């Protein structure tokens, strides 16, 4: 087989050039560079709809601005997220901060002080509960209400922009740009806590998660091609992956996603979905042997700032008007 010389990575202030060099180096640095190359191909493909799966505590960890810029630059067309990320995002929009903490700490002492810990990030529980109460009140204003999480979050996005016009968030940006946000496990988050509080008060509120599956699958079915980017794995990853299966059961065999990128710290040998390879997904029809695919086994808080900076620094512009 043909052998190309391995490239040395030279220090530079030019992030796109750095990442391009990394793509010809070795190990996970190479995978990070290759992931940016595949993501760039998605962005420049006029037929491709890009779906982002977002898990892990990315907003508390400080990744909010990177994700906002992905939306602003139209580098993603729809987002499937955990409820936690959107809750923390809404909290930030409303002026509630996350704080630098430490992972070596007396958690009982934190509890007595009303401080929540997310590894080495702190937040005030009462401030979070104030968001829960606001969302519960908003739900009461909508009632009776039965719709998908994407519809609910679009309405919530408009609401937070009205009550805090100076705020900045992923959800508000998606609402402005027409990028749908799905949370298929919304009950498993503080957003779910808020809606449970509302329901206990007699509010007729229900999030239709089957509608989520149908709406997202219809986006996939009406796209010429799809590209997927997974930050972590979990429910968001599978929810996007299964659209290919749902489509095939409606006589719309789409042949799998055309592009696939994942940043994860999970390993395939434990058998979980978050670490499973795209090669394994071929057996399910979620990807194909022709899918351009890269998995980078790296902490997303390291990979995402580098990848997003490289994409933006390259000046990539979508060649068509994406969804919304």
TL;DR of this structure?
The protein is an alpha/beta fold and 324 residues long. The protein is 47% helix and 17% strand. 42% of the residues are buried.
Radius of gyration: 20 Å
> What is the CATH third-level topology name?
Deoxyhypusine Synthase
Broad shape: globular
Please provide the count of β strands: 11
Count of alpha/pi helices: 13
Compute the separation of the termini in Å. 45 Å
Strand content bin: 15-25%
Indicate the structural class: alpha/beta
Number of separate domains? 1
H/E order of the elements?
A: HHEHEHEHEEHEHHEHEHEHEHEH
The CATH class: Alpha Beta
Detail the poorly predicted runs. Answer: none
- The whole-number mean of residue pLDDT values reads 96
Largest sheet: 6 strands, parallel
Q: Give the helix proportion (percent range).
A: 40-55%
Strand order in the sheet with the most strands: 7-2-1-9-10-11
The CATH architecture can be given as 3-Layer(aba) Sandwich
Describe the protein.
The protein has 324 residues and is of the alpha/beta class. The protein has one domain: 3-Layer(aba) Sandwich (Deoxyhypusine Synthase), CATH 3.40.910.10. The chain is 47% helix and 17% strand. It contains 13 helices and eleven strands. A six-stranded parallel β-sheet has the order 7-2-1-9-10-11, with helices on both faces. Strands 3-5-4 form a three-stranded antiparallel β-sheet. Strand 9, helix 11 and strand 10 form a beta-alpha-beta unit. The longest helix is centred in the first third of the chain and has 18 residues. The relative contact order is 0.18. The mean pLDDT is 96.
């Amino acid at each position: 087989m043909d052998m190309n010389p391995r490239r040395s990575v030279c220090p530079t202030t030019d992030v796109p050039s750095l990442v391009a060099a990394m793509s010809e180096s070795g190990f996970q640095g190479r995978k990070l560079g290759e992931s940016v190359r595949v993501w760039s191909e998605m962005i420049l493909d006029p037929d491709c709809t890009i779906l982002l799966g977002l898990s892990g505590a990315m907003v508390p960890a400080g990744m909010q601005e990177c994700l906002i810029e992905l939306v602003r630059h139209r580098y993603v067309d729809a987002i499937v997220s955990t409820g936690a990320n959107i809750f923390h995002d809404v909290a930030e929009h409303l002026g509630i901060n996350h704080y630098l903490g430490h992972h070596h700490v007396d958690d009982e002492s934190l509890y007595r002080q009303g401080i929540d810990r997310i590894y080495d990030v702190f937040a005030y529980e009462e401030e979070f509960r104030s968001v829960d109460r606001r969302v519960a009140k908003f739900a009461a204003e909508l009632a009776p209400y039965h719709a998908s999480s994407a519809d609910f979050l679009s309405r919530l996005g408009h609401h937070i922009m009205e009550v805090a016009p100076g705020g900045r968030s992923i959800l508000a940006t998606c609402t402005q740009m027409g990028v749908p946000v799905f949370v298929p496990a919304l009950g498993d988050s503080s957003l779910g806590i808020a809606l449970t509080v509302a329901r206990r008060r007699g509010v007729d509120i229900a999030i239709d998660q089957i509608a989520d599956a149908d709406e997202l699958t219809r986006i996939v079915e009406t796209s010429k091609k799809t590209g997927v980017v997974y930050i972590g794995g979990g429910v968001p990853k599978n929810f996007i992956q299964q659209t290919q299966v749902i489509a095939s059961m409606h006589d719309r065999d789409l042949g799998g996603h055309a592009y696939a990128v994942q940043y994860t710290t999970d390993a395939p040998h434990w058998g979980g979905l978050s670490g499973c390879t795209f090669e394994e997904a071929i057996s399910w029809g979620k990807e194909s042997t022709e899918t351009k695919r890269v998995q980078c086994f790296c902490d997303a808080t390291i990979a995402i700032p580098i990848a997003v900076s490289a994409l933006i620094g390259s000046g990539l512009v979508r060649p068509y008007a994406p969804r919304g």
